[in-house]
Amino acid sequence: SDLNAGADQNVCYGNIANIGSSLSTGQSFSWEPTGLIDGSTTFKTARTKAMTSTVEFTLTAKTLFPLECTASDKVIVTVIPNPIAFSVTADKTEYCEEDDITDNIVRLEETETDVYYAIFKNGIKLDAFPWRQGDGSAMEWDGLESGIYTVRARKGNQSPYCTTTMNDTVTIVRKPSPTATITLNNTIACPGDTANIKVEFTGTPPYLFKMEINGEERDYVSNTNEYNFTHNLSGASEFKITEINADGCLVNYNIGDEPILNIAIDEVADFDIVMTPDREKFCPGDVVTLSVVHNNPNSTYLWSTTETTRSIEVRYDANFELRVRTK
Question: Terminal CA-to-CA distance of the chain, rounded, Å?
């Protein structure tokens, strides 16, 4: 019979091989060793189980008519070891927005001299980094942006290659620079009022920040993106953030660039009450005019007589009170 067990072939460790030829002739067939054949061992062609070592397979064919004849052919399946899986590491995996990314390094701790390596970001090979042959020492890739990085290795000069994904992955995170805004949550009218103030952050908490209140700087901590506090006002006030440290990302503001809140207060100016006529003694039935001397147009007035004008007429020999409010 015409018998063909197929051409010798190489497979990667753990792969299967298809052996035999459909052109073989004969009335019955058998493969040896049978324990390494996946499925029937009595066909012209066969598929091996996962290969872990090099094996020589034998195909035997028989004819019973017109003469009993036996023929055999052999095929060698050579197993190529996969690349060794070494560890992938990084010195630092979190970076701030303003940091120099040339320091973003992913490192393969060891290489093989007959193996080529490439780095992949989020499962896609980076065009900026071609396959590189190992030399037995570590291999590095730098200047990497945020992403999940793996390293793959391949052995062989042409496809199909024997490939292995190296142990571990490296996740690089670029944290944004923190920012802050300060706002006033309530209406302020007079000295002595309490200001409800909110500081809102963007970035990565916790936030360690410095804030000046009327020129006096103090340290504060916020574990969330919002920080609320109250401040009793004795007059016009200024709140200014000079520095933010958000999970290691530091921003020092230049003078004039700081997040700032100014609260202006219309203080009640000094005022006088004048009496017309202005004399020490009055006669029964005399009428006196009391007038407020006050220059703030935003002020309102309330006398103890319930009148709200700047001037009122009253009888002598009595006490009067006045409240002045500035809006």
Answer: 114
Residue 286 confidence class, pLDDT cut points 50, 70, 90:
confident
Amino acid identity at 308: T
SS3 content of the chain, % helix, strand, coil (to 5): 0, 50, 50
Whose structure tokens read 């804030």? 211
| pTM for this prediction | 0.66
Sign of torsion over alpha carbons 133, 139, 145, 151: positive
Pairing of strands 55-63, 28-32: antiparallel
Residue 57 pLDDT level (bands cut at 50, 70, 90): very high
Beta strands in 16-105, from DSSP E residues, in sequence order: 18-20, 28-32, 45-47, 55-63, 69-80, 88-90, 94-96
Q: Tens digits of per-residue pLDDT, 262-282?
A: 998 766 556 778 888 887 777
pLDDT digit string (tens) for 308-324? Answer: 888 988 876 677 777 76
The residues that bridge with 207 in the sheet, in sequence order, are 222, 246
Rounded to an integer, what distance in angstroms lies between the CA atom of residue 187 and that of residue 63? 106
How many CA atoms lie less than 13 Å away from 63 in the CB half-sphere? Answer: 11
User: Alpha-carbon distance 184 to 229, whole Å?
Assistant: 10
Helices (H), the chain: none
Closest CA to 33 of 53, 12, 3: 53
Contact 77, 9 (CB under 8 A): yes
